[in-house]
Amino acid sequence: MNELKITYLYDLSHTILNEYLLKFEYPWEALNCLKDEIIQFGNKLDLNEYNLIKENVWVHKTAKVFNSVYLDGPLIICEGAEIRHSAYIRGSVVVGKNAVVGNSSEIKNSILFDSTQVPHFNYIGDSILGYKAHMGAGAVTSNLKSDKSLVVIHNGCTDIKTNLKKVGAFLGDFVEVGCNSVLNPGTVVGKNSNIYPLSSVRGVVKENSIYKQGIVVEKR
Protein backbone atom coordinates (compact mmCIF):
# COMPACT_ATOMS: atom_id res chain seq x y z
CA MET A 1 0.00 0.00 0.00
CA ASN A 2 2.95 2.36 0.45
CA GLU A 3 3.28 2.74 -3.33
CA LEU A 4 -0.20 4.29 -3.42
CA LYS A 5 0.47 6.97 -0.82
CA ILE A 6 0.66 10.62 -1.78
CA THR A 7 4.13 11.05 -0.28
CA TYR A 8 5.39 8.07 -2.29
CA LEU A 9 3.94 9.10 -5.65
CA TYR A 10 4.73 12.81 -5.53
CA ASP A 11 7.43 15.30 -4.64
CA LEU A 12 5.17 17.78 -2.89
CA SER A 13 7.65 20.62 -3.31
CA HIS A 14 6.30 20.88 -6.87
CA THR A 15 2.75 22.01 -6.11
CA ILE A 16 1.26 25.00 -4.33
CA LEU A 17 -1.20 22.64 -2.64
CA ASN A 18 1.49 20.69 -0.79
CA GLU A 19 0.08 21.42 2.66
CA TYR A 20 -3.39 20.41 1.55
CA LEU A 21 -2.22 17.10 0.10
CA LEU A 22 -0.31 16.28 3.27
CA LYS A 23 -3.64 16.08 5.09
CA PHE A 24 -4.40 12.86 3.20
CA GLU A 25 -2.81 9.45 2.92
CA TYR A 26 -3.99 8.50 -0.58
CA PRO A 27 -4.53 10.84 -3.55
CA TRP A 28 -8.18 10.05 -4.24
CA GLU A 29 -9.00 11.27 -0.72
CA ALA A 30 -8.05 14.80 -1.80
CA LEU A 31 -10.67 15.03 -4.56
CA ASN A 32 -13.81 15.68 -2.51
CA CYS A 33 -12.74 18.95 -0.88
CA LEU A 34 -10.57 20.26 -3.71
CA LYS A 35 -13.03 22.94 -4.80
CA ASP A 36 -13.21 24.53 -1.36
CA GLU A 37 -9.44 24.32 -0.88
CA ILE A 38 -8.75 26.14 -4.15
CA ILE A 39 -11.12 28.96 -3.19
CA GLN A 40 -9.52 29.34 0.22
CA PHE A 41 -5.99 29.20 -1.18
CA GLY A 42 -6.79 31.57 -4.03
CA ASN A 43 -8.15 34.22 -1.69
CA LYS A 44 -4.75 34.31 0.02
CA LEU A 45 -2.73 34.81 -3.17
CA ASP A 46 -0.74 38.00 -3.66
CA LEU A 47 -2.57 40.11 -6.25
CA ASN A 48 0.74 41.75 -7.11
CA GLU A 49 1.63 38.38 -8.65
CA TYR A 50 -1.77 37.07 -9.74
CA ASN A 51 -4.65 38.60 -11.69
CA LEU A 52 -8.17 37.81 -10.50
CA ILE A 53 -9.72 37.70 -13.98
CA LYS A 54 -13.19 36.57 -12.87
CA GLU A 55 -14.77 35.11 -9.75
CA ASN A 56 -12.42 32.52 -8.21
CA VAL A 57 -10.09 32.45 -11.24
CA TRP A 58 -6.52 33.49 -10.43
CA VAL A 59 -3.93 33.67 -13.22
CA HIS A 60 -0.27 34.40 -12.56
CA LYS A 61 0.95 37.45 -14.42
CA THR A 62 3.66 35.42 -16.16
CA ALA A 63 1.26 32.74 -17.41
CA LYS A 64 0.38 32.66 -21.10
CA VAL A 65 -3.34 32.21 -21.72
CA PHE A 66 -4.67 32.20 -25.27
CA ASN A 67 -7.78 34.31 -25.99
CA SER A 68 -9.75 31.28 -27.20
CA VAL A 69 -9.66 29.32 -23.91
CA TYR A 70 -12.60 28.82 -21.54
CA LEU A 71 -11.78 29.18 -17.86
CA ASP A 72 -14.22 28.46 -15.04
CA GLY A 73 -13.51 28.70 -11.33
CA PRO A 74 -12.31 27.86 -8.90
CA LEU A 75 -9.03 27.80 -10.78
CA ILE A 76 -5.42 28.76 -10.11
CA ILE A 77 -2.96 29.03 -13.00
CA CYS A 78 0.57 29.30 -11.66
CA GLU A 79 3.75 31.02 -12.75
CA GLY A 80 4.88 30.40 -16.33
CA ALA A 81 2.03 28.04 -17.19
CA GLU A 82 0.68 27.98 -20.74
CA ILE A 83 -3.00 27.46 -21.61
CA ARG A 84 -3.22 26.99 -25.36
CA HIS A 85 -5.87 27.44 -28.05
CA SER A 86 -9.40 26.21 -27.21
CA ALA A 87 -8.48 24.59 -23.89
CA TYR A 88 -11.50 24.06 -21.63
CA ILE A 89 -10.93 24.20 -17.88
CA ARG A 90 -14.17 23.50 -16.05
CA GLY A 91 -13.22 24.41 -12.49
CA SER A 92 -11.71 22.98 -9.31
CA VAL A 93 -8.32 22.89 -11.01
CA VAL A 94 -4.77 23.92 -10.18
CA VAL A 95 -2.37 24.24 -13.12
CA GLY A 96 1.16 24.14 -11.75
CA LYS A 97 4.19 26.26 -12.49
CA ASN A 98 5.38 25.92 -16.12
CA ALA A 99 2.67 23.36 -16.86
CA VAL A 100 1.05 23.13 -20.31
CA VAL A 101 -2.62 22.63 -21.09
CA GLY A 102 -2.82 22.21 -24.83
CA ASN A 103 -5.23 22.74 -27.66
CA SER A 104 -8.72 21.31 -27.11
CA SER A 105 -7.73 19.71 -23.80
CA GLU A 106 -10.39 19.58 -21.06
CA ILE A 107 -9.72 19.49 -17.32
CA LYS A 108 -11.95 19.37 -14.24
CA ASN A 109 -11.46 18.74 -10.52
CA SER A 110 -7.76 17.97 -10.88
CA ILE A 111 -4.30 19.01 -9.76
CA LEU A 112 -1.51 19.37 -12.31
CA PHE A 113 1.86 19.56 -10.60
CA ASP A 114 4.61 21.86 -11.88
CA SER A 115 5.83 21.19 -15.43
CA THR A 116 3.04 18.70 -16.15
CA GLN A 117 2.03 18.54 -19.81
CA VAL A 118 -1.40 17.71 -21.24
CA PRO A 119 -0.67 19.30 -24.61
CA HIS A 120 -3.01 17.82 -27.25
CA PHE A 121 -6.66 16.70 -27.11
CA ASN A 122 -6.50 15.31 -23.57
CA TYR A 123 -9.28 14.85 -21.01
CA ILE A 124 -8.23 15.02 -17.35
CA GLY A 125 -10.99 14.56 -14.80
CA ASP A 126 -10.84 13.91 -11.04
CA SER A 127 -7.13 13.21 -11.28
CA ILE A 128 -3.73 14.24 -9.95
CA LEU A 129 -0.77 14.37 -12.32
CA GLY A 130 2.69 14.58 -10.78
CA TYR A 131 5.77 16.65 -11.54
CA LYS A 132 6.77 16.49 -15.22
CA ALA A 133 4.09 13.90 -15.98
CA HIS A 134 3.21 13.93 -19.67
CA MET A 135 0.09 12.80 -21.53
CA GLY A 136 0.59 11.99 -25.20
CA ALA A 137 -1.82 13.30 -27.82
CA GLY A 138 -5.34 11.97 -27.33
CA ALA A 139 -4.57 10.20 -24.04
CA VAL A 140 -7.40 10.55 -21.52
CA THR A 141 -8.39 9.75 -17.98
CA SER A 142 -11.72 7.95 -17.75
CA ASN A 143 -13.33 8.98 -14.47
CA LEU A 144 -16.74 7.27 -14.48
CA LYS A 145 -17.53 3.56 -14.75
CA SER A 146 -20.11 2.52 -17.34
CA ASP A 147 -22.43 1.16 -14.63
CA LYS A 148 -21.98 4.33 -12.53
CA SER A 149 -20.90 2.27 -9.50
CA LEU A 150 -18.30 3.46 -6.98
CA VAL A 151 -14.70 3.27 -8.14
CA VAL A 152 -12.40 0.65 -6.64
CA ILE A 153 -8.59 0.75 -6.87
CA HIS A 154 -7.34 -2.67 -8.00
CA ASN A 155 -3.87 -3.40 -6.62
CA GLY A 156 -3.02 -7.01 -7.38
CA CYS A 157 -5.21 -9.17 -5.15
CA THR A 158 -6.27 -6.17 -3.05
CA ASP A 159 -9.24 -3.95 -3.81
CA ILE A 160 -9.43 -0.52 -2.19
CA LYS A 161 -12.79 1.23 -2.01
CA THR A 162 -12.72 4.94 -2.77
CA ASN A 163 -16.43 5.49 -1.96
CA LEU A 164 -16.46 7.90 -4.91
CA LYS A 165 -18.38 7.62 -8.18
CA LYS A 166 -15.95 9.79 -10.12
CA VAL A 167 -12.24 8.98 -9.87
CA GLY A 168 -9.76 9.43 -12.70
CA ALA A 169 -6.05 8.60 -12.61
CA PHE A 170 -3.10 9.37 -10.36
CA LEU A 171 0.21 9.69 -12.17
CA GLY A 172 3.41 9.83 -10.16
CA ASP A 173 6.27 12.15 -11.00
CA PHE A 174 7.88 11.76 -14.46
CA VAL A 175 5.20 9.38 -15.80
CA GLU A 176 4.92 9.21 -19.60
CA VAL A 177 1.60 8.18 -21.14
CA GLY A 178 1.60 7.30 -24.84
CA CYS A 179 -0.75 8.69 -27.45
CA ASN A 180 -4.42 7.62 -27.46
CA SER A 181 -4.14 5.65 -24.24
CA VAL A 182 -7.07 5.36 -21.83
CA LEU A 183 -6.46 5.38 -18.09
CA ASN A 184 -9.53 3.69 -16.66
CA PRO A 185 -11.22 4.88 -13.42
CA GLY A 186 -8.96 4.46 -10.42
CA THR A 187 -5.71 3.90 -12.31
CA VAL A 188 -2.50 4.61 -10.38
CA VAL A 189 0.81 4.82 -12.24
CA GLY A 190 3.97 4.89 -10.12
CA LYS A 191 6.68 7.47 -10.72
CA ASN A 192 9.11 7.11 -13.64
CA SER A 193 6.86 4.64 -15.46
CA ASN A 194 5.97 4.60 -19.17
CA ILE A 195 2.65 3.65 -20.74
CA TYR A 196 2.86 2.56 -24.39
CA PRO A 197 0.58 4.24 -26.96
CA LEU A 198 -2.92 2.78 -27.45
CA SER A 199 -2.92 1.17 -24.01
CA SER A 200 -6.01 0.61 -21.88
CA VAL A 201 -4.72 0.75 -18.31
CA ARG A 202 -6.54 -0.41 -15.18
CA GLY A 203 -5.37 -0.80 -11.60
CA VAL A 204 -1.89 -0.07 -10.29
CA VAL A 205 1.28 0.12 -12.38
CA LYS A 206 4.32 0.06 -10.15
CA GLU A 207 7.05 2.69 -10.32
CA ASN A 208 9.92 2.32 -12.84
CA SER A 209 7.80 0.09 -15.07
CA ILE A 210 6.90 -0.14 -18.75
CA TYR A 211 3.27 -0.99 -19.55
CA LYS A 212 2.63 -2.39 -23.03
CA GLN A 213 -0.72 -3.86 -24.00
CA GLY A 214 -1.37 -5.29 -20.55
CA ILE A 215 2.17 -6.56 -20.02
CA VAL A 216 4.21 -4.83 -17.33
CA VAL A 217 8.00 -5.10 -17.14
CA GLU A 218 10.50 -3.37 -14.90
CA LYS A 219 12.74 -0.76 -16.46
CA ARG A 220 16.41 -1.69 -16.76
Your description of this structure?
Strand 17 (152-155) and strand 18 form a beta hairpin. Helices cover 8% and strands 35% of the residues. The chain has one domain (2-218): 3 Solenoid (UDP N-Acetylglucosamine Acyltransferase, domain 1). It starts with 5 loop residues before the first helix and ends with a strand. It is mainly beta. The protein has a nine-stranded mixed sheet with strand order 1-2-5-8-11-14-19-22-25, with helices on one face. Pfam families: GMPPB_C. This is Transferase family hexapeptide repeat protein. Keywords: Acyltransferase, Transferase.
The global form is globular
Order of helices and strands: HHHEEEEEEEEEEEEEEEEEEEEEEEEEEE
CATH architecture classification name: 3 Solenoid
Strands across the major sheet, in which order?
A: 1-2-5-8-11-14-19-22-25
| Fraction of residues in H or I helices | under 10%
Secondary structure: number of strands: 27
Mean pLDDT: 97
Return the structural class: mainly beta
CATH topology: UDP N-Acetylglucosamine Acyltransferase, domain 1
Name of the CATH homologous superfamily: Hexapeptide repeat proteins
CATH classification class: Mainly Beta
Unreliable stretches covering 5 or more consecutive residues:
none
Distance between the termini: 24 Å
Keywords: Acyltransferase, Transferase
Pfam family, one: GMPPB_C
Protein name: Transferase family hexapeptide repeat protein
GO molecular function: acyltransferase activity; nucleotidyltransferase activity
